[in-house]
Amino acid sequence: MVDLDRPCPHEHFAADVAVNRIGEDDPGNDTGLPNHYSADVRVRCVDCGEPFRWIGVPAGLSPHQPMCSVDETELRAPIRPASSDPDFGLGIPGFAITQ
User: Fold this and answer.
1) In DSSP terms, which residues pair with 20 in a beta bridge?
2) I need a labelling partner for 5 at 20 to 30 A (CA). Which of 13, 60, 87, 91 fits?
3) For the chain, what are the domain ranges?
4) 60-96 pLDDT, tens per residue?
């Protein structure tokens, strides 16, 4: 729990990263090959447990650009294998939350 009377200097951090496989190239052929990957990243202070928020990243999910969760504590970054074509992941729907 964060004590606002004694601010933490935030000197030690932990980052959790989850890599997600989304969709399949051809759902009918049972290859199980994804057509999109996403790296979801959370950062927190180890000493006080306070989560960090991502700055300047729109809220939502996109296969084309990094976005964050509504509470800004999770970065959702699309990634692709280095050997894949630059258009890897096209056709995957996304969403954005605006004010």
Assistant:
1) 38
2) 13
3) 13-81
4) 988 888 999 999 999 999 988 888 766 655 555 565 6
